[in-house]
Write a structure and sequence with these properties.
The complex is a heterodimer of chains A (281) and B (234). Chain A has 281 residues and is an all-alpha fold. Chain A contains 12 helices and no strands. Chain A has a single domain, classed as ABC transporter involved in vitamin B12 uptake, BtuC. The radius of gyration of chain A is 20 Å and the shape is globular. Chain A starts with a helix and ends in a 6-residue tail after the last helix. Chain B is α/β, with parallel strands linked by helices and 234 residues long. Chain B is 28% helix and 24% strand. Chain B has 6 helices and 10 strands; from the N terminus they run E-E-E-H-E-E-H-E-H-H-H-E-H-E-E-E. In chain B, a hairpin with a 2-residue loop joins strand 4 and strand 5. The chains are: A mainly alpha (281), B alpha/beta (234). The interface between A and B is medium-sized, with 25 and 39 residues. Bound molecules: adenosine-5'-diphosphate (ADP) and magnesium ion (MG).
Chain lengths: 281, 234
């Protein structure tokens, strides 16, 4: 059991890290709605894998990557309709997921594979999946480092980057692709409905805590790893569902970050008032 | 490399519409600008000036007619190669206070399209950035986060980025909007000198009277999506 826990903990740290990092880029590139549909497509894929007897992680990946590519191409062709297409994919995917769960036999509800779709499972992590996670982490880091200038230019101003001849579409596609792969791999741990907690909460918290882009990236991936591993340990100790516990931890971190920011803002204003008070001029 | 074309921009009976709008934003526009020319485009708000500039760069595509940049159809995938020779100063350049990229980084990022993987700027390119900043009088802002600068300072920074890339064509959308009188004079002088010395082309959009007018080779007036007066061949 300890061995399984150690594996799961490693996977949690890696998934949290990756989700936090990709969440940062998705947020800065303003493709959050697109990634939202990619995540739901992954969920649909996982649930179909469930009734068709595939490994849900791989069927999730097929769905997530295809929807990422579709959305990426739509992004290049039409500039204004993509939110709508995105929403259509999102609702259709959720429907497919629920249908699949309904159609799959109720007695499998307790098995590890349906847990992947619904609430995540500690038992679902294998050495093989861990190796894939490490590989994806290396690939993503290489991509970010290799194209640092190009990606930075897009984070700063997409329109200027495009006008200057940067291949904006290819990088958007690459980012959505990584989002798809990372989401599918994290489903194991969090379950399909709560993967967003790991994708969006860490970056939202990081944005409260610092203004520097690289610090935001670092904090976002760190908070992702902290949320996932803490959530895992708590869920193990209290026998709670993993995904929900991770979601609660990451939401708590976001709330604390928000409170921290509000408090420091208030302190700053008070200090300014005292310095510039009557008689100061 | 792309073939050397004497026409930097060539629009042939171009119509452009925004999606969701049933009225074209630009109707039947013909425009030709050759190397070494400075063209000023004026007209009231909503005339279609921004639309025209973005169509030249291929950011907006015509639904009727053809648009060429350096001889490349803007609908072709090779348009990216043509854009690499261009610099663009957008109309909405102001960043919110929390934007933390420094002036140095922002200008360096203009070189991104010329760089392959893992590559960063050369010593010479960094020296050029320094030189352009001094030209525009903002060399002391180098390490300031962009969000902490005033609108006028931010505008000089994007103009510095545009010039640092050594473009063969400059597209400036309302580049004077946040500048004071001195700033307008300085930017007009720097841009026109760049055009003359490098044989580069500049298309400058401005809705009000400004000092660039005395350097312009052609002035085009737009209203209601059409060119109503001026020389559309420069
Ligand atoms: N994103 C948009 N969607 C729909 N209509 C637009 C959009 N941008 C501009 N327009 C319309 O296109 C016309 C031309 O706009 P624009 O080129 O921005 O004018 P200018 O730059 O001369 O002020 C205007 O009527 C404007 O309302
Ligand atoms: Mg305009």
């Amino acid at each position: 059991m300890l061995e399984i826990l150690a594996l799961a903990l490693l996977a949690a740290v890696l998934s949290g890290n990756l989700c936090g990092a990709v969440g940062f880029y998705v947020q800065r590139l303003k493709i959050t709605t697109l990634s939202f549909s990619v995540a739901h497509a992954a969920l649909a894929g996982a649930s179909l894998g469930l009734i068709l007897n595939f490994d849900p992680v791989y069927s999730a990946m097929v769905f997530a990557i295809s929807s990422a590519l579709i959305l990426g191409f739509i992004f290049t062709k039409i500039k204004y309709g993509r939110e709508l297409v995105s929403m259509a994919i999102f609702s259709a995917s959720s429907a497919i997921a629920l249908f699949a769960i309904y159609m799959s036999n109720v007695r499998v509800l307790a098995t590890a594979s349906i847990a992947v779709v619904l609430w995540g499972s500690l038992l679902a992590v294998t050495v093989q999946k861990l190796i894939i996670l490490v590989l994806v982490l290396i690939l993503f880091a290489l991509y970010i480092l290799a194209y640092r200038m190009h990606i930075d230019s897009m984070l700063y101003d997409v329109k200027m980057a495009e006008a200057e001849g940067l291949n904006v579409q290819a990088h958007m596609l690459a980012m959505l692709f990584f989002a798809g792969v990372i989401i599918s791999l994290s489903l194991r741990l969090t379950g399909g409905f709560l993967v967003f907690a790991l994708l969006y909460n860490p970056v939202a918290a990081a944005l409260q805590l610092t203004r520097k882009a690289y610090m935001q990236l670092f904090l976002s991936s760190t908070l992702g790893a902290v949320s996932a591993s803490t959530g895992l340990v708590v869920s193990y100790a209290l026998d709670w569902p993993v995904g929900a516990t991770i979601a609660i931890v990451s939401s708590t971190i976001l709330l604390l970050a928000y409170l921290f920011k509000t408090a420091t803002e208030m302190a700053r204003k008070r200090k300014l008032r005292n310095v510039g008070g009557p008689g100061a001029i | 490399m792309l073939p050397l074309e004497s026409d930097i921009v060539n629009l042939e009976r171009v119509w452009v519409a925004y999606s969701g709008s049933d009225k074209p934003a630009m109707r039947n526009i013909n425009l030709r600008v050759s190397a070494g020319k400075l063209m000023l485009i004026t007209g009231p708000n909503g005339a279609g000036k921004t639309t025209l500039l973005e169509t030249c760069l291929g950011l907006l595509k015509p639904y009727r007619g053809r648009a060429y940049l350096f001889g490349v159809d803007t609908r072709s995938w090779r348009i990216r190669e043509a854009r690499k020779m261009c610099s663009f100063v957008p109309q909405d350049f102001i960043k919110p206070p929390f934007e933390a990229y420094t002036v140095r980084r922002i200008i360096q990022l203009g070189f991104a399209p010329y760089k392959s993987i893992f590559e960063s700027l050369t010593e010479k390119e960094n020296e050029r950035i320094q030189w352009v900043l001094e030209l525009l009088g903002i060399e002391d802002l180098l390490d300031r986060p962009i969000g902490t600068l005033s609108g006028g300072q931010q505008q000089r920074v994007v103009i510095a980025r545009a010039l640092s890339r050594k473009p063969r064509a400059l597209y400036l959308d309302e580049p004077f909007s946040s500048l004071d009188r001195e700033g307008r004079k300085l930017v007009s002088k720097v841009v026109s000198e760049y055009v003359k010395k490098k044989g580069a082309t500049a298309i400058i959009v401005s809705h009000d009277v400004n000092p660039i007018i005395k350097y312009a080779d052609a002035i085009v007036r737009m209203d209601n999506g059409e060119i109503i007066s001026g020389d559309c061949y420069a």
